[in-house]
Amino acid sequence: xxxxxxxxxxxxxxxxxxxGKTITGIASYxxxxxxxxxxxxxxxxxxxxxxxxxxxxxxxxxLDGDFCLIIHLRMTGKLVFDPQPGDVxxxxxxxxxxxxxxxxxxxxxxxxxxxxxxxxxxxxxxxPRLGPEPLQPEFHSGGLRQALKGRKAPIKNLLLDQGLVxxxxxxxxxxxxxxxxxxxxxxxxxxxxxxxxxxxxxxKLVLTEALACNGTSVSDYRGIDDKTGEFQNFLQVYxxxxxxxxxxxxxxxxxxxxxxxxxxxxK
DNA sequence: CAATGATCCTGTCCGC
DNA sequence: TGCGGACAGGATCATT
Length: 267
Fold this sequence. Notes:
By secondary structure, the protein is an alpha+beta fold. The chain has helices at 4-18, 123-126, 141-148, 155-160, 170-180, 193-212, and strands at 22-28, 34-36, 47-55, 58-63, 67-72, 77-82, 92-98, 103-108, 114-119, 250-254, 257-261.
């Protein structure tokens, strides 16, 4: 499940593979995966790629003529660079065709991933409201405390809210809460500033470590070069039976998703 | 506005 | 062996 470190890893790989190359067209193989903004009427391709940025779990490909491709992998989306593309691949939902004869396949088993072409000036209209980037200084305990004011939902659920902080998913929320010693069932507004300071630090740390490992590969996540990430070797609670201190972990459902936590270490 | 639950979708795994 | 059901989960929409 691509979260911030995985999205950044895919984006880095994509930049390495196609920076400066020209997209000659985008083929669509599944209804709804690829969408063109309503105000773009005629074909705008070919367009050269020039920037590769990320906002939360969204990849933003800057193209000439002030166009932008917004790509979201959701749960099972993958980008695969292919120097010699052939027929449509299994689960291929869209394809970026490059002038060089190469291509980038958008493979997505569960079909939730999205690609949108819009004008760069309109990007905000196609993104939801997103909270601060967790690795930037603007994500800090004071701001988080402010954002959690009056929020009674469990902290686990709140950290998954992209409007609060952008880029976390189930894996890193479970890991950061364990490292912080905070029970995932605690209400957001009841956390002390001291706890929030610890939480913010651990979120930044776990994301930084995961980035250095090229992300976490559980199930089928891969980089664009089909390499797995390595951070799954360092997970402490996600899908585990015991915490690092050998206590039995509990698994509960929160907002429809599984939460792993240690009743002994997390209060 | 906040919180919750259903929804979308398919491959995999488990129990009978 | 085969089948049904549960599960995985990010974001969106509807409901309370």
